[in-house]
Amino acid sequence: MRITVPESAVPVQDIDLYDPRTFSEGDPHAIWRTLRHEEPVFWQQLPDGRGFWSVTKHDDVCRVLGDHESFTSSRGAILKMLGTPDPAGGRQMAVSDPPRHTHVRRPLYQLMTPSALRPQIPKIHAAVRKLLAPMTSGDTWDMGVAMTALPMIVSGILMGLPEEDYPDLVRSGLMTVAPDDERFQVGGSAEATLHQAHHDLFAYFAAQVRKRRRNPPPDLADSDLIGRLMTLRVEGSRLSEGEIVSNCYSLLLGANVNTGHVVSAAILQLMDFPEQYEKWATDESLLKPGIREALRWSSPVVHFLRYAVEDVEVRGRKIRKDDGVVAWIPSANRDEDVFDDPFRFDVGRRPNREIGFGYGPHRCIGAVAAQITLELTFQEIFARVERFEQAGEVEHLVSNFTAGIKHFPVKVTARR
Ligand code: HEM
Question: What's the CA-to-centroid distance between 51 and ligand 1, angstroms?
Fold first, then answer.
């Protein structure tokens, strides 16, 4: 499915933003556009009695993600777990609120700033080149598969993980964000798949922690993100092993399921607009604005959930204490009140207030790492590829959490 201007409104009573198939088979943008116009703060009742609010306007998405005092992350942040308190709540950075959240986030971020990452650039560049090497071989190349593997290059380096473990870790990540996707299912159900992926990842990181405890490098705190988690102190105490492992899990997932989809979605769209591709590929000054536009366009992280801490009003609708509120990021990134002609991919779009990396205290901690990876990847593609042609069916992940492309076969015309 290419993202196009939605042709017509969707009857509000038919809207289902819970079902992952809405995102793989349907057109969620048609739904979000309808909601932005007709019911920007929307209550969906599920057949099992649960229900949740959806916010779809840029301002409201920023408000919900930015105001942790009214909308907490600590009870869970994923719609799939609606109504079930996240066991990692308050123990894992992504599902905790300031001030504890800040105490964990700040020392981790020190290893992910532009200056901390600069020495890693040659390594990342070499790995990107290796991944893209088959692109111009003349055969059909599956960009979806290659791009799914892309972020592991960076998370592997940041977390100090052995390269031979990458394929299993990528697969476990996909099982976690798309447990309903039959391609990644084990044990015949989404629940069994999630259970297996959690178990494998937690056991894996527990072993990584043990390995570092047995044989600590002299600079453990600075060696990688796992070492940093093992040594940091929060309000005077070290993190427990459970907390370390849970944060490793969150870092890996945060890193692994997004970055590559920005590339695939942008290239897929620009196949219909070759002049935009050429403009972007040949004008160095458009590299960064084009990447921002690709982030806006693809919005690979689809939603985050919060719970209302108290009764609160949004756009005149009363959200009650404890209600779940889902902030839809791709919808915010197409808001007609913020973006001119939002369904046009404009590599030179300025200003561009996209929020692909989220907003507020939880805004993506890996944004710099992702930005570096995207710059190196697009530069490499632009230098080597004159034109992409679709050479088979595009398959999307079955997920309401990650807008991902798992298969995207292309034929490449190499630049001379
Ligand atoms: C294009 C790639 C990426 C996108 C679009 C993306 C998007 C996001 C978004 C929207 C959030 C906000 C979560 C919230 O509000 O609760 C987030 C948080 C997070 N991201 Fe990313 N991310 C990307 C890459 C990465 C990378 C490379 C890493 C790690 C190296 C990473 C690790 C995390 C973590 C750990 C959090 C939680 C931060 C916190 O709770 O303070 N992400 N990301």
Answer: 26
Question: What is the tens place of the pLDDT at every residue in 154-180?
Answer: 999 999 999 999 999 999 998 998 888
Ligand 1 midpoint to CA 349 (Å): 23
288 within domain boundaries? yes
CB of 94 within 6 A of ligand 1: the answer is yes
Per DSSP, 319 falls in state E
Q: Is 7 domain-assigned? A: no
- Closest ligand 1 atom to residue 155 Cα is 30
Q: What is the CATH number of the domain that holds 397?
A: 1.10.630.10
Q: What are the pLDDT digits (tens) for 257-295?
A: 789 999 999 999 999 999 999 999 999 999 999 999 999
1 occurs within a structural domain: no
Cα(132)–Cα(141) distance, integer angstroms: 10
3 lies in a domain? no
Q: What is the pLDDT of residues 65-92, one digit of tens each?
A: 999 999 999 999 999 899 999 999 999 9
Residues of the domain holding 17: 12-414
In the DSSP assignment, the letter for residue 392 is S
Angle between helices 190-214 and 166-177 (to 10 degrees): 140
Q: What is the pLDDT, as a whole number, of residue 365?
A: 97
Closest Cα to atom 10 of ligand 1: 358
Cα separation, 229 vs 244, in Å, equals: 6
178 lines ligand 1 (CB under 6 A): no
CB of residue 370 inside a 6 A radius of ligand 1: yes
CA distance 287 to 289: 6
Of 194, 226, 250, residue with least CA distance to 364: 250
Report the number of distinct structural domains present in the chain: 1
Tell me, using a 6 A CB cutoff, whether residue 259 lines ligand 1.
yes
